[in-house]
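Researcher: We're teaching a course module on how sequence relates to structure. For the next exercise, students receive a sequence and then see the predicted structure as C-alpha coordinates, so they can try to spot secondary structure elements on their own. Here is the exercise chain.
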Amino acid sequence: MKLIIAMTVLTTASSAIAEVKTSETKPYKYGMHLNIDKLIKLEYLRTAPAHCGTIPAEITYEDSTGEVHIVEYLYPDTSGCAH
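Model: And here is the predicted structure for the students to work with:
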Protein backbone atom coordinates (compact mmCIF):
# COMPACT_ATOMS: atom_id res chain seq x y z
CA MET A 1 0.00 0.00 0.00
CA LYS A 2 2.84 2.40 0.87
CA LEU A 3 4.45 1.65 -2.47
CA ILE A 4 1.27 2.57 -4.34
CA ILE A 5 0.97 5.86 -2.45
CA ALA A 6 4.64 6.68 -3.08
CA MET A 7 4.30 5.94 -6.81
CA THR A 8 1.20 8.16 -7.02
CA VAL A 9 2.97 11.06 -5.30
CA LEU A 10 6.04 10.73 -7.52
CA THR A 11 3.95 10.55 -10.69
CA THR A 12 1.98 13.65 -9.70
CA ALA A 13 5.14 15.58 -8.79
CA SER A 14 6.95 14.65 -11.99
CA SER A 15 4.00 15.69 -14.16
CA ALA A 16 3.86 19.07 -12.38
CA ILE A 17 7.59 19.56 -13.00
CA ALA A 18 7.15 18.64 -16.66
CA GLU A 19 4.42 21.28 -17.00
CA VAL A 20 6.67 23.94 -15.51
CA LYS A 21 9.47 23.16 -17.98
CA THR A 22 7.17 23.42 -20.99
CA SER A 23 5.58 26.75 -20.02
CA GLU A 24 6.67 29.76 -22.04
CA THR A 25 8.20 32.64 -20.10
CA LYS A 26 6.32 35.89 -20.63
CA PRO A 27 7.60 39.35 -19.71
CA TYR A 28 5.51 41.23 -17.15
CA LYS A 29 3.70 44.28 -18.47
CA TYR A 30 2.28 46.98 -16.22
CA GLY A 31 -1.37 46.24 -15.43
CA MET A 32 -1.06 42.59 -16.52
CA HIS A 33 -3.69 40.43 -14.77
CA LEU A 34 -2.08 37.58 -12.81
CA ASN A 35 -4.59 34.93 -11.79
CA ILE A 36 -2.33 33.32 -9.16
CA ASP A 37 -3.93 30.39 -7.37
CA LYS A 38 -0.77 28.53 -6.28
CA LEU A 39 2.83 29.76 -6.18
CA ILE A 40 5.21 27.14 -7.56
CA LYS A 41 8.56 28.94 -7.65
CA LEU A 42 10.05 32.41 -7.19
CA GLU A 43 13.57 32.85 -8.52
CA TYR A 44 15.92 35.84 -8.57
CA LEU A 45 18.27 35.68 -11.55
CA ARG A 46 21.20 37.65 -10.12
CA THR A 47 24.63 37.29 -11.68
CA ALA A 48 26.58 38.35 -8.57
CA PRO A 49 25.99 37.69 -4.86
CA ALA A 50 25.72 41.41 -4.05
CA HIS A 51 24.15 43.85 -6.49
CA CYS A 52 22.71 47.36 -6.35
CA GLY A 53 20.00 47.90 -8.93
CA THR A 54 17.35 45.88 -10.70
CA ILE A 55 17.78 42.23 -11.58
CA PRO A 56 15.56 39.87 -13.55
CA ALA A 57 13.34 37.55 -11.57
CA GLU A 58 10.79 34.87 -12.48
CA ILE A 59 7.60 33.77 -10.82
CA THR A 60 6.13 30.40 -11.73
CA TYR A 61 2.52 29.91 -10.70
CA GLU A 62 -0.61 27.91 -11.34
CA ASP A 63 -3.80 29.81 -12.15
CA SER A 64 -7.33 28.96 -11.01
CA THR A 65 -7.81 26.67 -14.04
CA GLY A 66 -4.66 24.66 -13.26
CA GLU A 67 -2.56 26.14 -16.08
CA VAL A 68 1.08 26.89 -15.24
CA HIS A 69 2.56 30.30 -16.13
CA ILE A 70 6.07 31.79 -15.88
CA VAL A 71 6.38 35.57 -15.77
CA GLU A 72 9.69 37.45 -15.82
CA TYR A 73 9.91 40.86 -14.16
CA LEU A 74 12.51 43.25 -12.72
CA TYR A 75 13.24 43.08 -9.00
CA PRO A 76 14.97 45.89 -7.05
CA ASP A 77 18.02 44.20 -5.50
CA THR A 78 19.70 46.28 -2.80
CA SER A 79 21.98 43.61 -1.36
CA GLY A 80 25.11 45.39 -2.61
CA CYS A 81 24.07 48.98 -1.99
CA ALA A 82 26.09 51.04 0.46
CA HIS A 83 23.83 53.13 2.68
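Model: If you want an answer key for the exercise: Residues 2-22 form the longest helix (21 residues). Strands lie at 25-27, 38-44, 53-62, 68-77.
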